Amino acid sequence: AVKLVYENSSTDNSTAAFLVQFTNGELKCDVEAADLPRVTLFTPGDGSNARTATRRILLAETSRMTYLGKNFGPDRHPDNYCKYLVGVMDPVKGEMTLHDALAMTMHPKPNMTSAEFEEESSAASDMNYREKYTRMIESFGSGRKRKLVETQQSSQLDQLSLESSMVTAKEYAQTELDDDIPSLEEQQMRNQASLIPPFNAEAKTPMEVFKLEDLITPEEYDCIKDVAQLLIEAKQTDICQWKTEKKYPEYVLGHVERLWALTSSKIVKRQARCLTYLSFLMGVYSIPHRELSQKGLQQLNLPSPVEKRVITMFTKVQAGPGRKPCYLIPPRLKDRLLIYILVLALYIENFSFNCSQLAKDLRLQPQKMGEYWRTVGCHMKTEKQKGSHSDQTPILSVELKVPFKLPSPRKRSAQRSR
C-alpha cells in the first residue's frame, strides 16, 4: 500500500507546482540539444496587496516561440471549481507526497525581431486613454471591472462588418422571396391539403381518389373486427335497444339495417368495419370541450390502436410535471376530424348520398357542412323537401366526381363572403 502525505502550500503559492496546457498542442523539445524552455515565474513583489497577492504570470521561452500564462484575467485557465494536486512518489519509503498545483493555459506568441518589437511598442504608445485603461483593467482589474470591460467589448460591432452583414442578409432575403417563398394562394392550397386525407388527383374513378387504408390503417381495420361483428349479427331488437341507449348515431343504425340486403360477405364486413370506425370518430367529434379535457377519451372505450391514432391526428396533448395528460381539439384539428368523417361516409355511401341525417347527427346545418364538402372536392345539390314549409331544412345531396380537383381558396373565400 502507498501512503499519501499532503504538503499544504496554500499559504505560499510560490512553492506550488504548475500544470500547464499549451493551446497550440504538445510542446516538443530536443533534450539532447538542450532546447528546453526557459521558465520564469513572476509574482506581485512583496505581496502586501491582498487582492493581487495570489496572481502569477508564467513565462516559457524557446528558440522559436514564447508562451505566456496567467492565473487571472480573460486568458486564465478555467478552474471549474477544481483543486489540482501533483503527486511525487518515493519508491523507497513507499510514500506519495501531494503538492498543491496551479493550472495555467499557455498562449503562444512568436519571438519578435527588434523591428517588430519597436512596431508593437509604437502601436502601444499610439493607444488612447480608454484603450490603455481597458488593457490595464484586463490585466490588473477586479473581477467586476473585468466583466464590465468584457460586456462593453462584446457589445461593440465593427461598422464595416455590420454593413457587410446587412447587405448579405438583404441579398439572401431577396433570393428567398424570389425563389422559395410560395404565394398566398399556394400557402392556402397547402393548408387546405393538410386537412384532408391523401388523395390521387389522377384517379379514374371516385374510389381511386381516396384510399381506405389512409382512412383506416390496417392495424385499426383488424382490431375492430369483433366490434363490427356485433353490427353484422344485430337483430331488430338490438337496433331498437341501441337507439334507446344512443350507443350508435342514427346515421350508423340506419345503415345496419341495409347490411341485411347485401349478398357479398366481403362487402358486408367492409361496411360494418367502416360504420364502426365512423361511430368512433363521430363520438370523438361530439364530446364537449370541457368533458374531453377532464375525462379524456377513456369514456368512449376505443380500441388501443384507434385511440393512439385519434390522439396523434386529431388532438393536442397538454401535460406537465405531476399532472395527467389533458386532451384538447383545436379548431383546425376538429376541421380535420370532420373531413375524415365525411370522406369515410362517402366510402360507405358509394360516393353519392343525401347527407341530411349525417348533418343532424353532427349537429351541423347543411349550408355549414357544404363548406367542408367543397374542401374534399365534392359537388353539391340542395333541394327543398316536397310539400314542406319554407322554414324546414332543405335536403343536401353530395357526390364525388372525377376528374378530382380541389377548389381554389380564393373562390371559396369569395363564396363565403357572399
What would your notes on this structure say?
The N and C termini lie far apart (95 Å). Residues 179-189 and 411-418 have low confidence and may be disordered. By secondary structure, this protein is an alpha+beta fold. Strands 1, 2, 3, 4, 5, 6 and 7 form a seven-stranded mixed sheet that branches. It has a three-stranded antiparallel sheet with strand order 10-12-11. A two-stranded antiparallel ribbon has the order 8-9. A hairpin with a 3-residue loop joins strand 4 (57-61) and strand 5 (65-70). Helices cover 46% and strands 17% of the residues. The chain contains 17 helices and twelve strands.
Short description:
The protein has 418 residues and is an alpha+beta fold.
Number of helices: 17
Structural class: alpha+beta
| Share of residues in strands | 15-25%
- How would the global form be characterised? elongated
| H/E series | EEEEEEEHHHHHHHHHHHHHEEHEHHEEH
Fold blueprint:
Layout: E1 3-7, E2 17-22, E3 38-42, E4 57-61, E5 65-70, E6 84-90, E7 95-110, H1 114-125, H2 129-140, H3 143-155, H4 159-179, H5 184-195, H6 212-215, H7 218-223, H8 225-232, H9 236-245, H10 250-259, H11 265-286, H12 289-295, H13 304-314, E8 316-318, E9 326-328, H14 331-348, E10 352-354, H15 356-361, H16 366-375, E11 378-383, E12 395-400, H17 409-417
Parallel strand pairs: 1-7, 2-7
Antiparallel strand pairs: 3-4, 4-5, 5-7, 6-7, 8-9, 10-12, 11-12
Helix pairs in contact: 8-11, 9-10, 10-11, 11-14
Q: Which terms summarize this structure?
A:
single chain, 418 residues, alpha+beta, seven-stranded mixed β-sheet, three-stranded antiparallel β-sheet, 17% strand
